[in-house]
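Hi there, hope your week has been kind to you so far. Thanks so much in advance, here it is:
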Amino acid sequence: MSTARPLRRHLAYLDWLYNPFKSWDVTRVYDLLSTDVATENGLYLNLGYWTGEQTLDEACQALAALVAERAAIGPGDRVLDVGFGFADQDIFWLRTYAPDHIQGLNITASQVAVARGRVKDLGLEERIDLREGSATEMPLPSNSVDTVVALECAFHFKTRECFFEEAFRVLRPGGRLVTADIVPMPLSGDRRTRLKQRWSWGLVASKFAIPAENVYTRESYAEKLRARGFEDVEVASIRDRVYKPLHDYLSRHPETLDRLHPATRLPARLALGMSAESVYGGLDYVLSAASKPRLL
């Protein structure tokens, strides 16, 4: 039995990575990935924000800090974190920015179980409440939280627009929505570049369960936030601080890939043999912020 389980998991990885005829839903992808993460000390799943950080752990935490600061998380706040992964950012936010309470929603039960165990081990379960639940059907009353954050997960939601509607509903007047999110780049006028962009985006979208309804550029992203009632909308590309620095770091530290499941190491090393612009050419990375009007 102990031998059969790793073999089944290895075969599942191969099916996910190399079978072009099967699409996986998001919970199955993250159940498979489990805690096979590239970070050394934590279980962050994001790509990091790089402004001179020396390790992937530092860059992942820097992205969490960027989101928290853009959301102005602080004492007294009630924060809703959707798609919280293994709760690394929630633990960091509570310790660093001291909100009154953080509630998390995540549809992947295996992640919820691990994250709740980590929070309990730290004695933080009274202030970090992590539950299984959907970002598009939030089990929260209207006007109940000060901040909604989605750190590198909203591209999975079916759909992102439904998430925007739910975020608007649960936010108190004046509350903030902040996302760190992946969207496609505007297509280039150059045919060869355009083909690379489509390949790059298509690979990510197919393997990481991005619904077709979520495929639009940052300009449309801002329009959709406004259409759902948000004001003070800002959607800025931070891709230059995400993709190329990550690619450069992994190229300098290929041993980082040894922390991943063996089945993923070959495609990851093949990607490092290509330029960052080829691998990530079709991907934009945005930081968005928007507010619910104080007077409705």
Q: What stands out?
A: The chain is about 45% helix and 20% strand. The two ends are 60 Å apart (CA to CA). The chain has a mean pLDDT of 96.
